């Protein structure tokens, strides 16, 4: 997954082709509407105010891709210092401000595991002629064992899921690099009980290719997105190890209604009785059957 997405020459995200938007493989909130950035700008300015306008307050966006969200935030809040971190860029140390991300965590490579012959085993990748195929083997890292310890789905022969060790490492690193401020993460995912639910026996690893969702992980290597839902409980626990305390975990819909009331009221009034792309975009972001409940918002805070 790491090579398919991030190989320097052939990786899906590193090959420099269009992957997000109408001519790519999938949409994200910033690619769908500038309103998303306008709303987040308000949140970032609130963070700055809550911290007492410290000198050097800055926003560092993880996985900011080609800078769409940055551009939209800066239109609303032009005086924010805002840096995008992409694959291979170092993280700034001693940040006073906010680490922000949209759909960053779901793009990190995961380990695949399956219950086979009564115990957790790892799914490795082997070559089979011109293609790749699954190969079962022992767990490759003791942290996987600790992660899986005690999960009731261990009794379900054939149960498959994914574990994201890199996400935990990243979160610890963010806690260490943040001197004071916030980590604001927006992504699709669940808390642990739901993540490892018996109702999800094939896990959440998915592929996006030209706006089609499928689960043929080995098709089109380097030309399709591979993504897994986020285990937010694991992110919260990893953050705690590095001094990040969760202050909010909620659905994107509820969250945006909370921070966007004024803007939504202004748009509703201005566009009443007309077709409005802005109202359509708000609907897309907050309706529970669209992005409002699948996407979650986690805010963690470090005070010193
Ligand atoms: C699903 S895309 C989301 C892009 C953008 N945030 C948006 O919402 O449209 C995931 C992004 O995370 C970036 N990414 C993945 N691993 C990364 C890493 N280790 N460091 C920095 N960026 C990374 C990818 O290159 C890609 O741009």
Brief write-up:
It is built from 11 helices and 14 strands. It has helices spanning 2-6, 29-32, 35-50, 68-76, 142-148, 165-177, 192-195, 232-241, 252-270, 277-286, 288-292, and strands at 58-62, 81-85, 95-102, 111-116, 119-128, 131-137, 160-163, 178-190, 206-209, 212-214, 225-227, 230-231, 245-251, 295-302.
Question: Which tags fit this structure?
Answer:
304 residues, alpha/beta, Rossmann fold, 2 domains, four-stranded antiparallel sheet, 11 helices, binds S-adenosylmethionine
Provide a descriptive summary of the structure in words.
With 304 residues, the chain is α/β, with parallel strands linked by helices. The chain folds into two domains: 2-108 and 164-212 and 226-302, Rossmann fold (3-Layer(aba) Sandwich), CATH 3.40.50.12710; 111-155, no CATH class. Helix content is 34%, strand content 28%. The protein is built from eleven helices and 14 strands. The chain has helices spanning 2-6, 29-32, 35-50, 68-76, 142-148, 165-177, 192-195, 232-241, 252-270, 277-286, 288-292, and strands at residues 58-62, 81-85, 95-102, 111-116, 119-128, 131-137, 160-163, 178-190, 206-209, 212-214, 225-227, 230-231, 245-251, 295-302. The strands form three sheets. Strands 1, 2, 3, 8, 12, 13 and 14 form a seven-stranded mixed β-sheet that branches. It has a four-stranded antiparallel β-sheet with strand order 6-5-4-7, with helices on one face. It has a three-stranded antiparallel β-sheet with strand order 10-9-11, with no helix packed on it. Strand 9 and strand 10 (212-214) form a beta hairpin. The longest helix is centred in the last third of the chain and has 19 residues, at 252-270. It is globular, with a radius of gyration of 20 Å. The two termini are 36 Å apart. The model has no long low-confidence stretch (mean pLDDT 96). The structure holds S-adenosylmethionine. Residues 13, 20, 28, 30-31, 62-65, 85-87, 102-104, 107-108 line the site of S-adenosylmethionine.
